[in-house]
């Protein structure tokens, strides 16, 4: 198998697995999680073969022709950054699929859940491996769609439906921003490939469009990674089953925005705007998430709010942009993915084993759930940032980046210390409160979860310690390639577990631990204080509800205004729009000159030279028009319209368009027949009495439309005929489309999708008419 096809299959394999997941469930029952986990496990093992070349700063590329006429290729790009994210997604994904098999075991729609989860995994892998920006946008939107399905999985609950709708609306706003950013970036650089942009940073930053590009890409990243003020959708997404929270909302989907910012750092970074926006919004998000986590008693909500804080910390570090800051961001990304996914899974195990997630209603579980307790301790050690964990390495590295005498760096350092202390307090609370103290009564008798529920948290906890112990290996294998890919220059690793007491960093860590312990011991009081302090602050969640309510009211008012059910008004709007579409462009482009041919013809009328039968056809049209205007009843009007249509068909026939003439004849016959049948419900002998103001209004509209058509034809006939398009059709109709009838070739080939759409509309209208007729028959 070629390398190109192998890398493409990395993104496609989860989608294929999603198709067969329900069938596997029917064939294997409760073992579906173990079987389907082979897919991400295989992807993880396949990707490990690239660790060695990436360590030596090699880049692996794969490309398949996609839209060659636009120079678009389905291209993939593996460097340190994409490989770290892909290994995280597939590795944690393996444990999540195992966990899901146990968590949703016996659920009616377990197979569907597995399909959604695997499809999301494929979308996320495609996102981080894509080199082509259009492909990246496609996978970006697929993550939004699949996360919508996962968040709203329990669609019988209104809260789940609302959370899913809110998540897809907010993230799709970012998706549109990403699409515009990709288009503007291509217009600016002429490149579709992210790898090609790495050397164009100076060009992009010097261009006048840089602020626009920056805002568009930041909008995409901020909505996806829940940065303030787009943070509110993430806590509501906790309505999803716990495996979804563990996978999407801690280790993968919400990190997509962080990945985008990291990938674009060589292109958009190193400017005052980049640094200021990322550090300010990252700081606000960090503190807001940490404080909001203290207000919660539901452990999933505590983790969700702390995830927002962690995402803000990652964005802050990317904004600082120094080598140490990017190194700290890389190490913290790995640490956060390990401990946060483990925390979410063990909270799900506690909920599964006790029937509650309320931290105030739990206690004494360490003897009833010892494996879960061990996993909680390891996750908490990493979240607090104690030695022998990857979290410790991340904290040391970020403090090293921020410990500078510059006042701005001092402010950011204080923000990082406070934010880390808040996260440490939350981690200690979740690891200690449910497991120590007296055993409290719970809805279920406390019991340890099945192997599928505890393997994931234990493995991730052990990995968080093992990677830190193997500091040199972790630095050279993970940190250096990833940070080098972000910085676009080679970065050195100086990670160490041995504190340097000659510097300030160990004391900053000790201060963080002390403040974290203080937060833990004062958690109840701080919870009450933060609730009182924030209860009157503007609420983004309520603002979203108000915006959606206003949007629905506006849509209702617009519908009542424009879709009132009066056919006469619809036709008036259509013809007024037609008149404006013809008259305004002519007036703007030609001014009064457009009236010159018309005025000359009035002053010196010239009759065209025509054959006798042509005069007869023209006379039929005039007779039909007069008959329509003076018709005394409805039947006469219908017949006069038929005369008009027949005259037009004959004109087509005389001027060499027999196919159009035939079509027109069919339309006229059907129109007369259908109108006559419909009008049998009315009295055809009556004449519609209309007020003079209606006659004047409609007559004026008709007159303007007629004059507009006449003026437009005069402008066209007096101008130079551009035959390039007709020459192209004539030259290519037979050799390319294999058709001698050029009109048919245009309809079927050159504008085939347009014709398909028209046929679909006619088919839909026919089905609607059939339904109405059948429903009326049933009523009778």
From TrEMBL:
Family matches, as InterPro entries: CPA3_Na-H_Antiporter_A (IPR050616), MrpA_C/MbhD (IPR025383), MrpA_C/MbhE (IPR046806), ND/Mrp_TM (IPR001750), Nuo/plastoQ_OxRdtase_6_NuoJ (IPR042106), Proton_antipo_N (IPR001516)
Major localization listed first in the record, in broad terms: membrane
Membrane topology, as annotated: Multi-pass membrane protein
Top-level taxon of the source organism: Bacteria
Subcellular location, record wording: Cell membrane; Membrane
Entry keyword set: Antiport, Cell membrane, Ion transport, Membrane, Transmembrane, Transmembrane helix, Transport
MrpA C-terminal/MbhE domain ranges (all copies): 697-774
Domain NADH:quinone oxidoreductase/Mrp antiporter transmembrane: 130-415
Protein name stated in the entry: Monovalent cation/H+ antiporter subunit A
Species name: Devosia rhodophyticola
Lineage, broadest ranks: Bacteria, Pseudomonadati, Pseudomonadota, Alphaproteobacteria, Hyphomicrobiales
């Amino acid at each position: 198998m070629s390398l190109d096809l192998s890398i493409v299959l990395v993104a496609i394999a989860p989608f294929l697995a999603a198709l067969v997941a329900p069938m596997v469930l029917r064939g294997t029952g409760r073992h579906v999680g173990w079987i389907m986990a082979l897919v991400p496990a295989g992807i993880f093992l396949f990707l490990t073969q690239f660790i060695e070349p990436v360590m030596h700063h090699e880049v692996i590329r794969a490309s398949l022709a996609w839209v060659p006429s636009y120079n678009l290729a389905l291209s993939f790009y593996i460097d340190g950054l994409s490989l770290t994210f892909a290994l995280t997604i597939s590795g944690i994904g393996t444990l999540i699929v195992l966990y899901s098999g146990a968590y949703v075991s016996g659920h009616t729609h377990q197979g569907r859940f597995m399909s959604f989860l695997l499809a999301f995994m494929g979308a996320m892998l495609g996102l981080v491996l894509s080199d082509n920006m259009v492909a990246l946008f496609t996978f970006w939107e697929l993550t939004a769609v699949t996360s919508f399905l996962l968040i709203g999985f329990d669609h019988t609950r209104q809260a789940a439906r609302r959370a899913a709708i809110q998540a897809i609306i907010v993230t799709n706003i970012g998706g549109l921003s990403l699409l515009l950013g990709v288009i503007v970036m291509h217009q600016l650089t002429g490149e579709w490939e992210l790898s090609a942009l790495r050397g164009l940073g100076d060009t992009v930053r010097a261009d006048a469009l840089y602020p626009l590009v920056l805002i568009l890409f930041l909008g995409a990243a901020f909505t996806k990674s829940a940065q303030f003020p787009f943070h509110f959708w993430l806590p509501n997404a906790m309505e999803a089953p716990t495996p979804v929270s563990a996978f999407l909302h801690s280790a993968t989907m919400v990190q997509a925005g962080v990945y985008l910012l990291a990938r674009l750092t060589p292109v958009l970074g190193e400017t005052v705007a980049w640094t200021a926006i990322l550090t300010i919004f990252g700081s606000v998000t960090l503190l807001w998430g940490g404080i909001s986590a203290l207000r919660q008693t539901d452990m999933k909500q505590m983790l969700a709010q702390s995830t927002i804080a962690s995402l803000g910390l990652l964005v802050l570090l990317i904004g600082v942009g120094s080598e140490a800051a990017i190194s700290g961001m890389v190490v913290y990304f790995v640490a956060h993915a390990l401990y946060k996914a483990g925390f979410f899974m063990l909270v799900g195990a506690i909920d599964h084993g006790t029937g509650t997630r309320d931290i105030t209603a739990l206690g004494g579980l360490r003897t009833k759930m010892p494996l879960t307790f061990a996993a909680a301790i390891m996750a908490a050690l990493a979240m607090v940032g104690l030695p022998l964990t990857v979290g410790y390495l991340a904290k040391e590295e970020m403090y090293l980046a921020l410990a500078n005498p510059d006042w701005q760096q001092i402010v950011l350092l204080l923000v990082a210390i406070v934010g880390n202390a808040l996260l440490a307090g939350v981690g200690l609370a979740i690891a200690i409160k449910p497991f120590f103290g007296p055993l409290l009564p719970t809805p279920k008798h406390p019991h340890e979860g099945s192997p599928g529920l505890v393997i994931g948290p234990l493995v991730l906890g052990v990995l968080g310690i093992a990677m830190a112990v193997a500091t040199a290996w972790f630095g050279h294998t993970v940190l250096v390639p990833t940070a080098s890919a972000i910085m676009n220059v080679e970065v050195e690793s100086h990670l160490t577990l041995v504190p340097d007491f000659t510097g300030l960093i160990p004391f900053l860590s000790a201060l963080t631990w002390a403040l974290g312990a203080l937060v833990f011991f004062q958690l109840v009081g701080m919870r009450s204080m933060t609730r009182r302090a924030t209860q009157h602050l503007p609420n983004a969640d309520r603002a979203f509800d108000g915006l959606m309510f206003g949007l629905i009211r506006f849509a209702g008012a617009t519908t009542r205004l424009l879709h009132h059910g009066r056919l006469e008004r619809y036709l008036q709007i259509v013809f007024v729009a037609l008149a404006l579409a013809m008259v305004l462009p002519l007036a703007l482009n030609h001014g009064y000159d457009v009236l010159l041919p018309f005025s000359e013809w009035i002053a010196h009328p010239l009759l065209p030279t025509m054959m006798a039968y042509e005069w007869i056809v023209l006379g039929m049209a005039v007779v039909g028009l007069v008959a329509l205007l003076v018709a005394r009843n409805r039947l006469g009007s219908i017949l006069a319209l038929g005369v008009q249509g027949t005259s037009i068909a004959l004109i087509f026939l005389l001027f060499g368009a027999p196919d159009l003439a035939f079509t027109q004849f069919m339309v006229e016959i059907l129109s007369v027949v259908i109108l006559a049948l419909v009008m049998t419900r009315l009295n055809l002998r009556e004449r519609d009495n209309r007020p003079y103001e209606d006659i004047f209004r409609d007559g004026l509209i008709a007159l303007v439309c007629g004059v507009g058509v006449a003026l437009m034809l005069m402008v066209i006939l007096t101008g130079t005929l551009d035959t390039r398009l007709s020459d192209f059709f004539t030259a290519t109709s037979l050799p390319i489309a294999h058709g001698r009838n050029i009109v048919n070739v245009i309809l079927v080939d050159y504008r085939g999708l347009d014709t398909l759409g028209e046929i679909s509309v006619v088919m839909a209208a026919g089905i609607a008419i059939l339904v109405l007729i059948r429903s009326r028959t049933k009523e009778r």
